[in-house]
Amino acid sequence: MEKLKPLKRFGQNYLVDKNTIQKIVSQFSPNEDDNIVEIGPGQGALTALLSRAVKNYKAIEIDKRVIDDLKINFSSVEFINADFLEMSLSELANGKKLRVIGNIPYNITSPIIFKLIEERQFVSDALIMVQFEVAKRITGKPRTKDYGILSVLTNYFADAEFCFKIPPTVFYPKPNVDSAIVSFKFGKSTPADVDDKLFVKVVKAAFGNRRKTLKNSLSNNAFGDLDLASFPFDLTRRAEELTIEQFVELTKLIQQNF
User: CA dist 5 to 17, 104, 210, 256, Å?
Assistant: First the structure.
């Protein structure tokens, strides 16, 4: 495949270092019967190794320039020229849960993660390359600057793990930031007595202004009509001080009074 110029509008940085590629594949640990979907195969760096190991392999690529060459070079792979964010994971899964992998465009990291969360019933796990700073936010702990909406929601709906850091030197062109591999396991069940959509709403409202107390943040959002002062919950704290379990407790209280 000829060396194409990566397109900025697609957030393309091609992975070119063989040792890094092998490390990612080893972390993913594919099995022959896995139902794998790769997001953004580019010129096939990960595809080349992974597609040899499995029978059912699909790759979603938005860049029309590379599709024909990919189909020629990897005839066993089903390539789909589309935007992953517009795809139905139910249709891709076709009755068997997906394993998702990808060196994704960093400018749409959050939308991709939230899509996986929203359609998690069709996904068993995912291994995704993200910007290093985002990886820290995904795996952030309470009372740290990295802890926020992404930390709480990701780890409420899944088990997220920071795998390893990746330097800019393994890409073409070299990005201006470090990267990291993060894994997500989607077998986690959420509390049956909690409305998941309300939980998301509460978390986003709570972090609406990190410097404000929970009472002020919630009052300034969709929960201003509630008598928050009557809640048996310390709302003088800030959102970054709460654990996921405490966010669940808060959501239950709001749910009872909403």
Answer: 17, 17, 40, 55
Question: What does the pLDDT look like over 241-256, one tens digit per residue?
Answer: 999 999 999 999 999 9
Same domain, 98 and 119: yes
Question: Which residue has tokens 């959102």?
Answer: 239
pTM for the full predicted model: 0.91
What are the pLDDT digits (tens) for 210-246? 889 999 999 987 888 899 989 999 999 999 999 999 9
CB-based contacts of 72, cutoff 8 Å, min separation 6: none
What pLDDT band is residue 7 in, cutting at 50, 70 and 90? very low
For residue 111, the enclosing domain spans 8-185
Same domain, 145 and 29: yes
Q: Residue 12 above 60 pLDDT?
A: no
**Rg, the chain, Cα only:** 20
Q: How many domains does the chain have?
A: 2
User: What does the angle CA 252 – CA 160 – CA 215 come to, to the nearest 5 degrees?
Assistant: 35
- Residues 151, 86, 202: CA angle, nearest 5 degrees: 30
Contact 247, 255 (CB under 8 A): no
Instruction: Kindly tell me the burial class for residue 108, based on how many C-beta atoms sit within 10 Å of its own C-beta (0-12, 13-18, 19 or more).
Output: middle
Instruction: Look up residue 102 and give its DSSP letter.
Output: E
